[in-house]
Amino acid sequence: MESEGCRVAFAKDGVFLHTSAKRHPEQDSLIPGVIRILEKGSEVQLQWTPLEEAGDTPQIVFSKKESPGAAEEDLFDPGYEPDWAVISAVRTQPRPPEQPPDPAPLPSPRAQWAFTLSLSELQSIRRSRPGLGWSYLIFISRDGRSLPALHFHRGGSKALLRALCKYLILAISPKDSRLYLVYSHDSYALSHAFDELQLFDENSSNLVSRFLQDPYAATFGSFSKVTNFFRGALHHEAEAPLRPPGDATSGLEDEPGFEVITCQVQLAPRPTVHREAPVTEQEWGQHLDPQGRITRLDELKRRIFAGGLSPALRKEAWRFLLGYYSWDSSSEENRARARHRTDEYFRMKLQWKSVSEEQERRNSLLRGYRSLIERDVSRTDRSTKFYQGSESPALVLLHDVLMTYCMYHFDLGYVQGMSDLLSPILYVTQNEVDAFWCFVGFMELVHQNFEESQESMKRQLGQLGLLLRLLDPPLGEFLEAKESGSLCFCFRWLLIWFKREFAFMDVLQLWEVLWTGLPCPNFHLLVACGILDSEREALMNSGFGFNEILKYINELTMKMSTEQMLCRAEALYRQLVATPELPRNVQEVLGLGGAAGTSPPQSLSPSQAPELEQTGRSSTPPTDSSIEILPPEEPPTAPSPEP
Questions:
Q1: Are 578 and 568 spatial neighbours (Cβ–Cβ below 8 Å)?
Q2: Which CATH class is domain 7-95+108-164?
Q3: What phi and psi values does residue 163 have, to the nearest 5 degrees?
Q4: Alpha carbon of 168 to those of 43, 186, 468: distances in Å?
Q5: 217 burial class (0-12, 13-18, 19+ CB within 10 angstroms)?
Q6: Is the pLDDT of residue 117 over 50?
Q7: Is 59 in contact with 29 (CB distance < 8 Å)?
Q8: Is the pLDDT of residue 555 over 50?
Q9: What is the distance between the alpha carbons of residues 57 and 268, in angstroms, rounded to a whole number?
Q10: C-alpha angle 592/598/599, rounded to 5°?
């Protein structure tokens, strides 16, 4: 049944629709058919179609539950229970034609029972009672309409439900163990996990808003209050929570007459990944044409992803990675662009510089931005030599760039955490204007993290949970059992891209790797998975509870190797790409346009041969792939605030 624009993802015959001979005497009591899952572009449909008329058709002997006076619409009632008795095969006597047939054949009476339902319109699935000779399923749409029960006389309900798990999550209703509630993968992970956390409950707004605005300060400053809040928020007194997606079939193993759903994906082996040497100024120069345009851009980005940049090259390369300079422009065109952007920057800076104290007293929003910025600047990276000293010119620049950004994006303004993103950029560029426009480029990537709705953060935490449950189901189940399945302890990681988790100099390398956009969108989520993967044994063998897990994760700060985490994250990516039948929602997170495993990841080089079982740096890497261990950079004296 393949056609252009339509693919049959699943098909099973021997799926019968039972009708009443009393209410439908013109039809067979059993209508055999085929159930299919169809992929039509971005839409996925569930379709049941009857088979053509047959000479011999099984008849049904009805149970006493079906009252002769039952209304026809009962067949479509959500509470209708088609619990049939034993079937016997009886030959149906063909009826003699009463009149000559019409020239045009009439549609088969069975055709009226065919149905097609988009999975986006599917609300729930009711299963049969245990003890039947076969199982049936009733599909209920979001408008409350129940489709006719489908009976799987030859089995196959398990296979159908497993196939549906590629597109949906089936969670057992807390009020009815025979009812599966249907969620999209993203909607369950996002809404349910955060509903349980009650992060946006009006009654808990003070503590939560503090955590959302400044999660790292809240974590370090009032650790016990934050952890106790999350622990308390996880407990619902009103009703039992839904079971986690990975536990949709818990308790069904011993029920006869129904096939247990299993949605496990068989992952491909995980390869070993080695980091390469950083890109040097000489190698960068080999990618410039006589006019200064970048050539072989894909190759250059792959090298930056695989090895990072040498310190001396960062100031130049970051302008390109963050969109201040254009890869396609000549050196002269980029210099002209910089002159124009310099004028634009100082016009915006003048806007807030020229506001008098009297004006600012009547502008509570600007006054609030300034207060937050001054407070955050005074505590941002003060242990780094570049920002040491109360009179450091770098602190003045940090303040001025952030205030100017409020003029550039006044709706967003300043949110705590932005100073952490600007600080390394200013350190590398050593220039106020360059730092501002590079910061603008970075904020284009992550500005949604700082929006008041927090929808982006919820989505990313949901996607992280999705990846973790696929890559390491035991770890996901452990965290669920310890009330940590929402992964709230990863909030700071994603908010400011691990800025507080790694040493200052290591963050420079991590960010330039992430800015390449390779090997996939959302690679930062795989970095987070890599951190959890590296700590899985310590977590699962510790006997930790919620508080201890949150405390343990926070204490990983400055104790992790960026090199090892990048190796591990890329290994996880390559493992997923090589996995057949990768769920569609995971493909979307990874930005895979086609079926998983059909093409190699674009970031890999031929020299990175896969090896099994482990990740990390080889003990004896090839000479051309070795990593140069650099001493800490000695920054020059911070420039003055004005050019």
A1: no
A2: mainly beta
A3: -65, -40
A4: 13, 9, 17
A5: middle
A6: yes
A7: yes
A8: yes
A9: 46
A10: 75
Assign 197 a pLDDT band (cuts: 50, 70, 90).
very low
8 A C-beta contact, residue 526 and residue 466: no
pLDDT digits (tens, 9 = 90+) for 46-61: 999 998 654 433 333 3
Rounded-to-integer distance, Cα 287 and Cα 295, Å: 5
Determine the Cα–Cα distance for residues 285 and 42; give it in Å rounded to an integer: 43
Where exactly does CATH 1.10.8.270 map onto the chain?
A: 310-452
Give me the half-sphere count of Cα atoms (radius 13 Å) on the Cβ side of residue 446. 25
DSSP category for residue 139: E
Distance from chain centroid for Cα 610: 26
d(Cα 384, Cα 299) in Å, to the nearest integer?
34
Most confident of 106-120, 610-624, 628-642: 106-120
How many whole angstroms separate alpha carbon 632 and alpha carbon 638?
17
1.10.8.270, 1.10.3720.10, 3.40.50.970, 1.20.120.1200: CATH of 310-452: 1.10.8.270
Q: What is the pLDDT of residue 346?
A: 97
Residues 6+ apart with CB under 8 A from 446: 421, 497
Length of the chain: 643
Q: Which of 179-188, 525-534, 552-561 has the lowest mean pLDDT?
A: 179-188
Which residue blocks in 192-236 are alpha helix, DSSP H?
193-197, 205-213, 215-221, 223-233
Cβ atoms 505, 632 nearer than 8 A: yes
Question: Among 447, 360, 348, which Cα is nearest to 401's?
Answer: 348
User: Which has the higher per-residue pLDDT, 616 or 102?
Assistant: 102
Going by pLDDT thresholds of 50, 70 and 90, the confidence category of residue 227 is: very low
Tell me the pTM: 0.61
Which helix (H) or strand (E) covers residue 138, if one does?
A: strand 135-141
Tokens of 498: 């691990």
The better pLDDT of the pair 524, 54 is held by 524
**How is domain 193-308+453-592 classified at the CATH fold level?**
Cyclin A; domain 1 (1.10.472)
Contacts of 97 (CB under 8 A, 6+ apart): none
User: What residues does CATH 1.10.472.80 cover in the chain?
Assistant: 193-308+453-592
138 is written with which tokens? 């009733």
